[in-house]
């Protein structure tokens, strides 16, 4: 269980030249490393949520879990109305989940970590249980089948809602710098600049 500092480019390439405009600054970020495979095992393991943290790199909430003699970060999810802290996050095989239930962090192949439905509010609905495969509805609305031996977590991903930004300082903290229209610039600064008396924009 660890936090990793994220490096920023400021929109510059390996030569220091700006290749993407309107980037730079922003709040420092510490990404929480999610352990998808604990202790080198091929299958995921659960744990009891001791604390819920905010991760600036994800929309989902991250829980500090304790279990199997070690601590790790897990994406927090569950059924509606369930208590988050103190609850056990348990990994189950998708064939064991009832029809109509929602699941998240579904693995694509047997023995792999969960890759489907990890964003805030995401969840897959179980439509049909077959002999070998399980039919699910993905968050996009698409219907597909996965192997019944694949692992998942029951419920939906918990996370923060997208709200209004409120002021320009929010964008600056996200690392987004102001954008100026080319027409508003001088002719030396932009192909569309220098049109002081109107007229058509001209390239050099």
Write structural notes for this entry.
With 204 residues, the protein is mainly beta. The protein has a domain of 130 residues: SH3 type barrels. Helices cover 3% and strands 30% of the residues. The strands form 5 sheets. A 6-stranded antiparallel beta sheet has the order 8-15-9-12-13-14, with no helix packed on it. The longest helix has 6 residues. It is elongated, with a radius of gyration of 23 Å.
What attributes characterize this protein structure?
204 residues, SH3 type barrels, mainly beta, six-stranded antiparallel beta sheet, four-stranded antiparallel beta sheet
In short:
3% of the residues lie in helices and 30% in strands. By secondary structure, the protein is mainly β. The protein has a domain of 130 residues: SH3 type barrels.
Strand and helix map with partners:
Blueprint lengths: L2 E3 L24 E3 L14 E7 L8 E6 L2 E6 L1 E2 L9 E2 L2 E2 L8 E3 L1 E2 L6 E3 L7 E6 L3 E5 L5 E5 L3 E4 L1 E2 L10 H6 L31
What is the helical fraction, as a range of percent? under 10%
Q: What's the helix count?
A: 1
Based on CA atoms alone, the radius of gyration comes out at 23 Å
Order of helices and strands: EEEEEEEEEEEEEEEEH
What proportion of the residues form beta strands (DSSP E)?
25-35%
Pick out the low-confidence regions: 38-42
What name does the CATH topology of one domain carry? SH3 type barrels
> How would you sum up the major sheet?
6 strands, antiparallel
Strand order of the largest sheet: 8-15-9-12-13-14
Q: What is the global morphology? A: elongated
Distance between the termini: 55 Å
Mean pLDDT: 85
Instruction: Give me the secondary-structure category.
Output: mainly beta
In total, how many beta strands? Answer: 16
CATH class of one domain: Mainly Beta
């Amino acid at each position: 269980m660890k936090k990793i500092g994220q490096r920023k480019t400021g929109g510059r390439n390996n030569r220091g030249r700006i290749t993407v405009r309107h980037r730079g600054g922003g709040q420092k970020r510490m990404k929480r490393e999610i352990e998808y495979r604990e202790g080198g095992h091929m299958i995921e393991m659960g744990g009891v949520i001791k604390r819920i943290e905010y991760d600036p790199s994800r929309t989902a909430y991250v829980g500090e879990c304790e279990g199997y003699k070690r601590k790790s970060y897990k994406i927090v999810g569950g059924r509606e109305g369930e208590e988050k802290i103190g609850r056990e996050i348990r990994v189950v095989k998708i064939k064991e989940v009832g029809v109509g239930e929602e699941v998240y962090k579904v693995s694509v192949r047997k023995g792999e970590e969960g890759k489907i439905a990890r964003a805030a509010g995401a969840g897959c609905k179980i439509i049909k249980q077959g002999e070998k495969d399980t039919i699910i509805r993905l968050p996009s609305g698409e219907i597909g089948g996965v192997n019944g031996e694949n692992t998942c977590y029951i419920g939906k991903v918990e996370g923060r809602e997208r709200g209004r930004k409120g002021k320009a300082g929010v964008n600056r903290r996200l690392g987004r710098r102001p954008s100026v229209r080319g027409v508003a610039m001088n002719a030396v600064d932009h192909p569309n600049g220098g049109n002081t008396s109107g007229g058509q924009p001209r390239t050099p």
